[in-house]
Amino acid sequence: MKKLLFPWISVILSYSFIALIFTYPLILHLNNSLAGIGGGDGFVYLWNIFEFWNEIGKGQNPFFSGSIFYPIGANLAFHTYAPLISVLGFLFLNQLVIFLNLMVISSLIFASTTAFLLAKYLTKNNLLSWVSGLIYGFSPVMVAFLSSQHYYFAFAAGLLPLGFLMSVKFFQTIKIKYVIFMILFFWACFLIDYYTAVIYLVVIIVTLASQFFSLLIYSKKDLSLFFTNKQLTNYLLTFFLFLTVPTTVIFLLTFNLADFKNWFGSQTSYPSICSTNLAGFLIPSKLNPQLSGVADFLYGRFGISEQVDTPSYYLGFIFLSLAIVAIFKFWKLTYIRISTILGIIILLLSLGPIIKVGTREFLSGSQTLFYWFSKMPFLGLIDCPIRFSIGLQLAMVVLVTLLFSKMMFRNGNFKKVIPIL
Length: 421
Hints:
The protein is mostly helical. It is built from 17 helices and 4 strands.
């Protein structure tokens, strides 16, 4: 038992130590400061938790507030309300600043740990998996989320590797429990952050579809061995129950007829502003004190305006190069193909309704994937495509992890790979 627990405890403790160092001096100001750029969403999150319990205390529906837009009130269904976080914050109602700061630190630990679990399942190597978790959990995108005070999004980002992992396990075993986990993690995402819930759905759909078509194209196995009538019936029944029942409850609690006018996509031009730029993936973050001068120069050179929502989505030249090497060298590996397809789709969605490099536009409007995505009910309500960049980060981490895994166990290259890590 101790042998089983020790690796997991050491992994979590190591990530915890790094998170405390990484966010320093936050640990010294847990009760009097909020992490990130002042005047952001942090103050809104404080109000969210207070108002959630305030409405419950009055015996009212917590998804509707009479405290704003008086005397009409406001439906909070698609406000960044995060009821799951509000429930967890109950014990900290008198110390909400401490609660949010603990959530900031926990989000880094949680994202790193779940990425570790995914990498461990794919590679069976503890060291490589630990590094993979570090890359995902402490990536520039995660730092950007926290610096812009998108704490909910950063915390929910830890559920994306779990969705990827459950879809892989389900397809390998066709066990109903993994479908249940997939759907439970989706609702956890939905009850924390709508944007992450949408990205989670994309990850699940793409990974499952990629595995299925990969099986059709590349495998000579009999498909009936994977999908018997009983297994498929159980899968569909579970999917129906865990998806439709919570949906019905949420609709009854949160919706009224007026909400349906915006049900089919965003009605604003904000997605064209809050989106990535292809050049931006290779420009270091301005938040990096050592590279801020270079970042300022490159942002000006390419005519890219810095996004307040997500200040950086930098991938890195070496990281991107390694991912490309993985694609070309090990394309025949199923999970390389899955991650490549996922990365391309997420990249196209993150670019929003205008695909451009610097100031030069290549595609726009109906020529882009995001345009058609935004026409879909529920999914199309996402108005900030730049946040899809965390999904691209996940795909890249899987690609680089698998590349190093193959390098480490091929021709005794283990000692050569360690310095690179």
